[in-house]
From TrEMBL:
Transport keyword on record: yes
Gene3D superfamilies hit by this protein: 2.40.30.170, 2.40.420.20, 2.40.50.100, 6.10.140.730, Copper binding periplasmic protein CusF (2.40.50.320)
Database matches in NCBIfam families: RND_mfp (TIGR01730)
Residue ranges constituting the Heavy metal binding domain according to the UniProt record: 52-78
Protein name (database record): Copper transporter
Gene Ontology molecular function terms on file: transition metal ion binding; transmembrane transporter activity
Keywords: Transport
GO cellular component term of the entry, any: outer membrane-bounded periplasmic space
Species this protein is from: Litoribrevibacter albus
Length: 556
């Protein structure tokens, strides 16, 4: 009975509500409320509803409601796109709330100058324009040596050595004979002969004054500088082809540095160079590129450049190891985008275009030269267009499913083809971190620079070494060039090395000073100090799907 009463009153209330609604709508007090309800209902019906939710790093992981992906990330809603035909295949749309949650940021494709800094190493050398090699012009014996060791400073006019030579004695006697005969023509010829034999003017004037032949002739330094290549001692027999010693001036020095083949086009004569030395922390030298060698090293594929530096305070010494920064830049402006916008894969390079109104699309691009912050775009992007610089990998994973290019299929084909290829090799600069000999097998730990053709960033790896490489020539701390060979079965090994001049001495110097010198501020591991963040992001993008599936399987 009670249930029947409740049903009766509910039905009666519904009838009264239906009959009273037209009347209440005419009353001012109730009109706004009813209008608001109608507006809210209308807006709710027009709000787009997600088709499904997808994992950011695995487009194959879909759910019909919000949640977490196997990697613990929030699922992203996917909406229907009725206007896809107008915006093109691969265009996706996300709401402002999702854009804010993902942290989407954009940059602009703009014309700007390429400002590239090439980080490399070099060695201080004498300025060969002022380096003098001293040879005798007669045969004789070194009777007395006034200098004792290489590196000794010498002054112009300082006595270097005495020579006894029968030829010099004969030349003096001819001069005295010409004087006795009072023949002006013979006197001039005799003096000319003495001068051609490099007899000092002091000795000629003394001979003219005393009229006595000197058994030993003293020779003097033609310029001030530092003694180098001292190859004689007292009692040595010397000939005109004998290099007695060299004298190099240190007011100006050369530094020879090497740059990789891909950087050779950026180096031009006269560009400014900054140099630092671990021997003088905190001090920086400025110089300019003076000469670019015409050919590359056939083994290391590097180009040698020569740089001039003023050295008035004589702090720079020959064979010092230097960190060199070449400030290469283009005179003309290039179309460039931020480096972090680039998505690198094995088959192509892409960026995500921001089309406006929450729409995005992945497109393929052709890249050119790069500096520390931007990279040139040769094709695919026009000036003024905006590209995504943050969260672009998440947007690309969704856009690629319906884009003009089939990334996953193309990648699979390339990987399948690569299995049939032979081994590939690449040269790269590296620093030796460890050397281990395990029976017939040797392992070398090395921190190497990026290898762009393989998509490798700067990183540390342990490599087996082929038997042809002489391990006795390597040392921990050595900076050198190594040849890495990559095999189709994903094996890697060091198949060749090139040790620059002075690299062994530099490594030994580092080991000797390890206990007494603070090396926390040193950086001897690269030509480039910064690590390519886009390379790391690329590796993360390429392997994210596999990681997600592994975690999903583990959860099961």
């Amino acid at each position: 009975m009670k249930i029947i009463s409740i049903v009766f009153f509910v039905a009666l209330g519904s009838v009264i509500g239906v009959l009273a609604t037209p009347y209440l709508a005419q009353q001012p007090a109730f009109s706004p409320y009813l209008a608001g309800m109608a507006t809210e209902s209308s807006s709710d019906s027009s709000e787009p509803q997600p088709l499904y939710w997808v994992a950011p790093m695995d487009p194959n992981y879909r759910r019909d409601k919000p949640g977490k992906s196997p990697m613990g990330m929030d699922l992203i809603p996917v909406f229907d796109e009725p206007d896809e035909g107008q915006t093109g295949p691969g265009t996706i749309s996300i709401s402002p709330e999702v854009m804010n949650n993902l942290g989407v940021r954009t940059g602009t494709a703009e014309m700007r100058k390429l400002e590239s800094r090439i980080e490399t190493v070099g060695y201080v050398q004498y300025n060969e324009d002022t380096l003098i090699h001293i040879h005798p012009r007669i045969e004789g014996w070194v009777e007395k040596l006034y200098v004792s060791a290489e590196g000794d400073p010498v002054r112009k006019g300082q006595a270097l050595y005495d020579i006894y030579s029968p030829e010099l004695i004969n030349a003096q006697e001819e001069f005295l004979l010409a004087l006795n005969q009072k023949s002006t023509r013979l006197e001039r010829a005799a003096i000319r002969k003495l001068r051609l034999l490099y007899v000092p003017e002091k000795s000629i004037q003394r001979l003219l004054k005393t009229r006595k032949v000197a058994e030993h002739i003293t020779f003097y330094a033609p310029q001030s500088g530092v003694l180098d290549n001292l190859s004689i001692r007292e009692g040595f027999f010397v000939k005109p082809e004998t290099t007695l010693m060299s004298i190099g001036a240190l007011d100006e020095v050369w530094v020879e540095a090497e740059v990789f083949e891909k950087q050779a086009g950026l180096v031009k004569l006269g560009v400014e160079v900054n140099m630092t030395l671990d021997y003088f922390p905190g001090k920086e030298w400025q110089g300019k590129v003076d000469y670019i060698y015409p050919s590359l090293d056939e083994m290391t594929r590097t180009l040698k450049v020569r740089i001039r530096f003023e050295n008035k305070d004589r702090l720079l010494k020959p064979n010092m190891f230097a960190n060199v920064q070449i400030n290469a830049s283009e005179d003309s402006e290039l179309l460039m985008i931020p480096r972090e916008a680039v998505i690198r894969t094995e088959t192509q390079n892409r960026v995500v275009l921001a089309l406006g109104d929450g729409k995005f699309k992945s497109i393929a691009v052709t890249l050119g030269q790069a500096d520390q912050s931007h990279i040139q775009v040769l094709d695919g992007v026009e000036e003024g267009e905006r590209v995504v610089t943050s969260a672009q990998f998440l947007l690309d994973s969704e856009s690629s499913k319906s884009s003009d290019f089939l990334r996953m299929e193309a990648r699979a084909e390339v990987m399948g083809d690569s299995d049939n290829e032979g081994p590939q090799s690449a040269w790269v600069e590296a620093k030796i971190e460890s050397i281990e000999q395990m029976g017939d097998m040797a392992m070398v730990g090395a921190s190497h620079q990026p290898i762009d053709e393989w998509g490798w960033p700067e990183m540390y790896m342990d490599f087996p070494v082929v038997p042809e490489v002489d391990l006795s020539s390597l040392a921990v701390g050595m900076v050198l060039h190594i040849q890495i060979t990559k095999y189709p079965d994903h094996r890697f090994e060091i198949s060749g090395v090139h040790i620059p001049d002075g690299a062994m001495m530099e490594a030994m110097g580092q080991d000797d000073a390890m206990n007494s010198t603070d090396h926390s501020g040193h950086d001897m591991s690269s030509i480039s100090d910064d690590m390519d963040a886009d390379m790391n992001a690329d590796m993360k993008s390429d392997t994210a799907n596999d990681i997600a599936h592994d975690m999903k399987d583990g959860a099961k």
